[in-house]
Design goal:
- With about 450 residues, the protein is α+β, with helices and mostly antiparallel strands.
- The chain folds into four domains: about 90 residues, Uridine Diphospho-n-acetylenolpyruvylglucosamine Reductase, domain 2; about 120 residues, Uridine Diphospho-n-acetylenolpyruvylglucosamine Reductase, domain 3 (2-Layer Sandwich), CATH 3.30.465; about 100 residues, Alpha-Beta Plaits (2-Layer Sandwich), CATH 3.30.70.3450; about 80 residues, Alpha-Beta Plaits, CATH 3.30.70.2740.
- About 35% of the residues lie in helices and about 20% in strands.
- It has 16 helices and 19 strands.
- Strands 12, 13, 14, 15, 16, 17, 18 and 19 form an eight-stranded antiparallel sheet that branches.
- A hairpin with a 4-residue loop joins strand 5 and strand 6.
- Helix 1 runs antiparallel to helix 3, helix 8 runs antiparallel to helix 10 and helix 13 runs antiparallel to helix 14.
- It is globular, with a radius of gyration of 22 Å.
- Bound molecules: flavin-adenine dinucleotide (FAD).
- Flavin-adenine dinucleotide binds next to strand 3, helix 5 and strand 10.
- The site of flavin-adenine dinucleotide has 36 residues, from strand 3, helix 5 and strand 10.
Length: about 450
């Protein structure tokens, strides 16, 4: 039997798409500047058993599979590959169990990030990792990329919340990893191995997540700085002071002006950097933490500092931060980077990015998670400038080089995908990368899962 006939037999009718009008929708993720391939077909299974059956058929025919969540990857991680089967988890979208006593939730991978917190709100709980894409990215994709977000400075990243996984391996075998218990050291940490493996080691079909008690409010401050160095000092001083901000975000001058153009919020267009600080500690501690943070910003040389505990005002400020991606998409083609340095080196990194952009005549907007040193320099390719993409990509490579020179990482949260594979050995070293390739060969000897990505 042919592959497509066997796949059709392995899943209920309507679970396999071959019509290009449908499959074309699964070619792209959000990495607009990398040309995707054409999938052989798109499988849309609705149960773990159907995923396993589809994987077994594909493995028997030696056909590669691209696992796909909601397709919001910014590193070309879920784009279609020529001749491969794309397997979408969109129908695996059920919340399976909520245990408010032990603060655990079990979901299928196609559940969206924001839906997890929504499902737990009535119990006074929430799921902390909060990518700016939380309303349109899936938990399976978050696990596969070890996604971060705005409040990770206090609460940590996806890896810190994944208790258990169910995974379909490359040959269709189903395994379970992890434990519901707070402690557990039985065997190697396979859960940790799959988190961040970008669909190259297995397809996640069920996720057990730890939850946290929902804070009862937040206080937020905004501070403008005349120089990058003074903003960097404020970040370092806040970190060293022992305060536990639940959010510490930075925007450079170009990004401040971008947001101001879109919102007319009254941001200081001349500021070199803007910091957003938030505390969600219980009252009255959060007020004290905000007071301390604003004093530290003043002492570091801020030209303007204001704090609020009005949720609407805070929401407006955070919306301004979250909307940067959309504003850039309206202006042209944004080439997102995602690099990380230790916090004390953020001013050096921002200064290097400005120099690199000027040298290549590229337009850079840098913002990101100052609290954990994870920066997003976005290079904008304006539609009316045919040479802009070449210049932007040259700047993109140089920013990664500069990050490595500063002892940083080529990706803080978006992943390696197809776009940064060439830099991986520089960061990891040859022996480390070879060991990772051996692990990949053990789990997927024929190299069928997410081919052409980082391994
Ligand atoms: C505007 C914007 C803002 C963003 N902000 C953030 C942010 O703040 N923080 C952040 O971390 N990311 C951010 N991202 C990137 C993206 O949303 C994340 O990488 C997200 O985790 C991807 O989830 P997804 O469901 O869309 O996965 P997809 O794009 O579908 O897939 C991503 C990767 O996961 C693999 N995968 C997906 N599902 C599975 C599965 N069930 N099993 C195995 N592998 C799987 C895919 O093969 C691929 O390698 C942003 C993206 C956009 C467009």
């Amino acid at each position: 039997m042919s592959l497509l006939t066997e796949l059709e037999a392995a899943m209920p009718s309507g679970s396999l798409a071959t019509d290009p009008d449908v499959t074309d929708r699964y070619r792209f993720d959000r990495t607009t500047w990398v040309e995707p391939g054409h999938p052989l077909a798109v499988a849309i299974p609705g149960t773990r058993a159907e995923v396993a059956a589809a994987v077994k058929v594909a493995a028997a025919h030696r056909v590669p599979i691209v696992p796909r969540g909601a397709g919001s990857s910014l590193c070309a991680g879920s784009q279609a590959v020529d001749g491969a089967l794309t397997l979408s988890t969109e129908k695996l979208d059920r919340v399976l169990d909520l245990d408010p006593v032990d603060e655990l939730i079990t979901v299928e991978p196609g559940v969206l990030n924001a839906e997890v917190s929504a499902a737990t709100a009535d119990e006074g709980l929430f799921y902390p990792p909060d990518p700016a894409s939380k309303t349109f990215c899936s938990i399976g994709g978050n696990v596969a990329t070890n996604a971060g977000g705005l409040c990770c400075v206090k609460y940590g990243v996806t890896r810190d919340y994944v208790q258990r996984l169910e995974v379909v391996l490359a040959d269709g075998t189903v395994i379970e990893t992890g434990t519901d218990t707070i402690k557990g050291v039985a065997g190697l940490d396979l859960t940790g191995l799959f988190v961040g493996s970008e669909g190259t080691l297995g397809i996640v079909t069920r996720v057990g997540l730890r939850l946290r008690r929902r804070p009862d409010g937040a206080a937020t401050a905004v501070a403008a700085f005349p120089t990058l160095a003074s903003a960097g000092r404020a970040v370092a001083d806040i970190a060293a002071s022992g305060l536990a901000p639940s959010l510490l975000e930075i925007m450079d001058r170009a990004t401040i002006n971008l947001v101001e153009d879109a919102t007319n919020m009254g941001l200081d267009r001349d500021a070199a950097a803007l910091l957003l600080v938030q505390s969600d500690s219980p009252s009255p501690l959060r007020g004290q933490e905000m007071d301390a943070a604003t004093v530290l910003c003043d002492a570091a040389g801020a030209s303007y500092v204001a704090a609020t505990d009005d949720p609407d005002e805070a929401d407006q400020l955070l919306q301004a931060r979250r909307m940067v991606g959309w504003v850039l998409e309206e202006l042209g083609e944004p080439i997102w980077d995602d690099v990380g340095v230790r916090r004390s080196r953020i001013p050096q990194l921002l200064a290097r990015i400005e120099d690199i952009a000027a040298r290549h005549d590229a337009e850079a907007f840098t913002f990101g998670h100052a609290g954990d040193g994870n920066m997003h320099p976005v290079l904008l390719v304006r539609r009316n400038d045919p040479d802009a993409r070449r210049r932007a990509l040259a700047a993109f490579d140089d920013i990664i080089e500069a990050t490595l020179e500063l002892g940083g990482t080529i990706t803080g949260e978006h992943g390696v995908g197809s776009i940064k594979a060439g830099f991986l050995e520089r960061e990891l070293g040859g022996a480390n990368l070879e060991l990772q390739r051996r692990i990949k060969r053990t789990l997927d000897p024929d190299g069928l899962l997410n081919p052409g990505r980082w391994l």
